[in-house]
Write a structure and sequence with these properties.
- With 486 residues, the protein is α+β, with helices and mostly antiparallel strands.
- The chain has 15 helices and 16 strands.
- The strands form six sheets. The chain has a four-stranded antiparallel beta sheet with strand order 8-14-11-12.
- α3 crosses α5 and α9 runs antiparallel to α10.
- Bound molecules: copper (II) ion.
- Copper (II) ion binds next to α9.
């Protein structure tokens, strides 16, 4: 059975009672009735049929029906113009997705919860649960779009899982890069509001959106691609993995930020509300912290394979891009003034370094707030900021960021990797900041970084494993590049 809002408090109380008596979660009655969201690759053929069936039914409904595919997608975002404008200008749930805020994880959990009920009802399977795309693996086959999403036809008609607009390559079996899916940086953070939520939103979340591209690369259309929902189920699962590793969500109602996270209400459409008639309802963060007890679902696995170093393919694409670039493109880089950089990242690597050296075309970047003696204490953080970022709304690639890459290139680039720049739902004109402290600290410890003025930054475009040429690259423009210590 599903837990509806009506039964939720009863179930919650029952679970509290049970939890006080029983230590094993499997013995908890609330767990026993949970739906289990499965890894898509483990679904049976009939479960895949149910998924396709449900999507097809939702897609057949008119866009002003709150249970239709377009209405549900428009809750995330909808285009303001063009041939597919916002079709449901309802006052409450249009284009309300939360990104770049500490509601990112909780809002998307609520969104998936109500969507899963609608899709389940449309599928005809009373035990339907939303599957997840488990791409957080070093193995290439896990990083491919599942085969069922790549076949244009299903029973001699269009396959609802197939979206032609995706980046070239993914529908042909191309794979996400290891840097796109690696959740380790996010998972090792310990504070939900200030770091974990934000880092998980960046990688893998934003990076997977930008890599898949097409509809997935744009907030206004992303949820129209069925892989969106499986991608977000995996992000939701990673949140629970982090909890199971001993971390905790905001809990303190006396702390204003915690209270805002716990108590802010968001609107959705619940098919079970109003005695099954369906109605608009609200949920808060406090009501979605325990998926089994409060929402009635679990995941089939809470593990990730994080041994990315064991796959020699990880990092290989970046090496090939940089090797070609260093040989052939070196002289094509522009030279910038020392006080203001206005530059565009667009489909080829860029290196910025200081001080200006005799090796053209490197760039002399003023650096502020640097401590006179170059150490980075544990209390100090180093940030790389792209100021005044503007970008094509339809992103189809992201950038890996490396610090102080040596020449010639080392076999292993990982020690120089500082993170990703992926723009999805990022405010136009805003400052994009990356915490590079860990990489800087490691390079100091290895004796490779001895002078703060010697930092160089390399941006390497990426989308698909093995892709070294970017034919119609989306661009990112910024007004200045800064590195600061705080
Ligand atoms: Cu998303």
């Amino acid at each position: 059975m599903r837990i509806t809002l009506k039964t939720f408090r009863v179930v919650f109380l029952a679970a509290l009672l049970a939890a006080s008596l029983v230590l094993l979660p499997v013995a908890n009655p609330a767990y026993a009735q949970s739906l289990v969201r499965k890894d898509f690759t483990t679904l049976s053929p009939s479960e895949i049929e149910d998924l396709k069936q449900g999507i097809e039914v939702m897609q057949s409904l008119p866009a002003d029906d709150p249970t239709s595919w377009l209405y549900q997608a428009n809750i995330h975002g909808c285009p303001n113009s063009g041939d597919a404008p916002c079709l449901n200008p309802g006052p409450i749930v249009q284009a309300t997705c939360q990104h770049g805020s500490f509601f990112f994880l909780s809002w998307h959990r609520m969104y998936l919860y109500y969507f899963e009920k609608i899709l389940g009802a449309a599928s005809g399977n009373p035990n339907f649960a939303l599957p997840y795309w488990n791409y957080t693996y070093p193995n290439r086959d896990r990083r491919q779009l599942p085969a069922a999403f790549r076949e244009p036809l299903w029973n001699n008609k269009p396959n609802p899982l197939y979206i032609e607009e995706r980046n070239d390559g993914f529908n042909d079996g191309g794979a996400l890069t290891c840097t796109a899916v690696d959740p380790r940086r996010a998972l090792r953070e310990t504070d939900f509001l200030t770091s974990f939520n934000r880092l998980l939103e960046s990688t893998p979340h934003n990076v997977v959106h930008s890599s898949i591209g097409g509809w997935m690369g744009q907030v206004s259309l992303a949820a129209r691609d069925p892989i969106f929902w499986l991608h977000h189920a995996n992000i939701d699962r990673l949140w629970d993995i982090w909890i199971r590793e001993g971390n905790s969500n905001p809990t303190d109602p006396d702390n204003p930020e915690d209270r805002t996270w716990l108590e802010t209400e968001f609107w959705f459409y619940d098919i079970d509300a109003n005695d099954g008639e369906g109605d608009f309802v609200t949920l808060t963060g406090a009501e979605v912290v325990d998926t089994a007890v409060q929402l009635g679902y679990l995941y089939d696995s809470y593990e990730t394979d994080q041994d990315f170093a064991s796959n020699p393919e990880c990092g290989d694409t970046t090496r090939r891009i940089l090797t070609n670039f260093r040989k052939e493109e070196r002289n094509r880089l522009s030279l910038f003034s020392s006080t203001l950089v206005t530059d565009t990242l667009s489909g080829s690597p860029k290196v910025f370094s200081r001080p200006f050296s005799s090796k053209p075309p490197f760039f002399n970047q003023r650096r502020s707030n640097v401590e006179p003696k170059f150490t980075l204490s544990s209390a100090t953080s180093e940030f790389l900021t792209l100021e005044g970022v503007e970008y094509d709304p339809e992103q189809n690639l992201f950038y890996e960021v490396y610090l102080n890459l040596p020449t010639p290139l080392p076999a292993n680039l990982n020690p120089y990797y500082a993170g990703n720049i992926a723009l999805f739902a990022f405010p136009q004109g805003g400052d994009y900041t990356l915490n590079i402290s860990d990489t800087v600290r490691d390079e100091i410890a290895r004796g490779e970084l001895t002078n703060p003025d010697d930092i160089s930054v390399t941006f390497v475009p990426a989308a698909l494993q093995g892709q070294t040429v970017f034919d119609d690259p989306s661009s990112i423009r910024f007004k200045n590049l800064r590195i600061t210590a705080q």
